[in-house]
Amino acid sequence: MGRRKKTDEKSAKQIRGPGRKAKKQGAPTFPKELLPADSNEKKKLSSRGKQRARKRLEKDQLKEANKKNSKLATRVTKRQSDGESNEDEEEEQQETNGFTDENQKWLKPKKKKELFDDEGEGEGEELMDEEVPYDDEFDDMESTTDDDEDNDVDDEPKLDIEKKSKKLREKQRQAKERSEQELLTNIQQQEKIQFPSGQEVTKDAPQADLQLIMHRIREVINVLNDFKTKREPNRSRKDYLDLLRQDLCNYYSYNDFLMNKLLDLFPLAEIIDFLEANEVQRPVTIRTNTLKTRRRDLAQALINRGVNVDPLDKWTKVGLVIYNSQVPIGATPEYLSGHYMLQGASSFLPVMALAPQPNERVLDMCAAPGGKASYIGALMRNSGILVANDANKDRAKAIIANTHRLGLTNTIVTNLDGRHFSEHMGGFDRCLVDAPCSGTGVISKDQAVKNSKDEKDIQRCFTAQRQILLNAIDA
Ligand SMILES: C[S@@+](CC[C@H](N)C(=O)[O-])C[C@H]1O[C@@H](n2cnc3c(N)ncnc32)[C@H](O)[C@@H]1O
């Protein structure tokens, strides 16, 4: 960068120098059409864009010619002071002067970069400066240096180029060597996975470097995906699966039981995606209560309060995503007056699948605190009958509070055990069962689930869910 700046400064100086010299050179140096560049013509020229452009062209040509002259002169002076013979240089200067003058007719103003490139052929230092930005781009550099070698006439800059080119080729060779070495190392690692001994697996793994564990996880998955060809002959599939499970438990902090269940549930290609997704916080989303407002109006009202909000996605016309907020989203005047419900985006979907219609009889069997039930009520446009039930009395109270806040008038809240609900009521058109669950689907909200679940919890959930579902079918 420093060198580049130097070049700019230098060229800036040159731009000023040649301007003054140009006047000394006089008119005969330039073709007729370019002569009216003096100050008395300036007013006339500046009045027309076309003439201004011509003037600019002329200036550029002058700058370029004089730049060459002044640089060459500097070099001659330098060499003289170094005690070198200056005969050749004088010849060269004459040649350059001649070139500049004769070529005024065909010389066209070029872009700055092109000008630099041309000059580079005769100016070793300039060329070096131009090449600096390519230091890391080996391909570009290679082609640049090759071109330069072919075209150069002057010996001095050629030497510079050669030096630079040699350096870069060496760099390039070293980089290639390194990457080949890395590749080899990876292949070797892939070929031989380090299996800790039975006791070591649990004892040593927590201290191990997480990066190494993730590396091994990927390698083991790679082997399991092509077990026949990639396995070690003395290792069984179970060996690899055990190692994978243990590494996943250590890396993501799950207990053995839950990780086993997840490995049963997800294909190898998806397990990492699932575990990674559980590490990411889900966005805060809200559902517009269409019984009271429109999404556009709600968004505007929230924006006015300093909430950064956007439509959730194409698949929903009522969802909004909150990026950040200067006010608590659960306590705004809009919230308190029931214009929206704080609700995860995924919880819209079961209601959309249920597709309740106005004037139907609908049952939400496990409804507290009423997120889905209130969406059902809104889709029914407060018509028909919605029964929102929950076995937990305190939680059932939350349904009542939300029902009032959101302005639902077609809703009856009940506090019954879903396993026996049909003994009290029946004849529903549609029924939603959002049964109590293990919580393994919301690990991103509650990381404690990773270690707090065991076989009994799952069994308990499973039995209750089946009983509630069967009763809902009866209802
Ligand atoms: C996942 S939550 C429901 C969330 C609710 N659908 C919503 O969208 O806001 C499960 C609910 O089932 C209730 N529940 C548990 N056992 C039940 C049972 N036997 N009968 C009815 N509800 C039950 C719990 O009290 C809990 O509120």
TrEMBL record:
Residues 274-475 form the SAM-dependent MTase RsmB/NOP-type domain. GO terms for biological process: maturation of LSU-rRNA; rRNA base methylation. InterPro entries: MeTrfase_RsmB-F_NOP2_cat, MeTrfase_RsmB-F_NOP2_dom, Nop2p, RCMT, RCMT_NOP2, RsmB-like_ferredoxin, SAM-dependent_MTases_sf. Residues 1-185 are annotated as: Disordered. Residues 45-56 have a biased composition (Basic residues). Residues 1-12, 57-67, 171-181 have a biased composition (Basic and acidic residues). The keyword Nucleus applies. Its main location: nucleus. Gene3D superfamilies: Sun protein, domain 3, Vaccinia Virus protein VP39. GO terms for cellular component: nucleolus. Keywords: Methyltransferase, Nucleus, Ribosome biogenesis, RNA-binding, S-adenosyl-L-methionine, Transferase. SUPFAM superfamilies: S-adenosyl-L-methionine-dependent methyltransferases. It is found in: Nucleus, Nucleolus. GO terms for molecular function: RNA binding; rRNA (cytosine-C5-)-methyltransferase activity. Pfam families: Methyltr_RsmB-F, RsmF-B_ferredox. Residues 84-94, 116-155 have a biased composition (Acidic residues). S-adenosyl-L-methionine binds at residues 366-372, 390, 417, 434. Belongs to the class I-like SAM-binding methyltransferase superfamily. RsmB/NOP family. PANTHER family: 28S RRNA (CYTOSINE(4447)-C(5))-METHYLTRANSFERASE-RELATED, NOP2 YEAST -RELATED NOL1/NOP2/FMU SUN DOMAIN-CONTAINING. This is SAM-dependent MTase RsmB/NOP-type domain-containing protein.
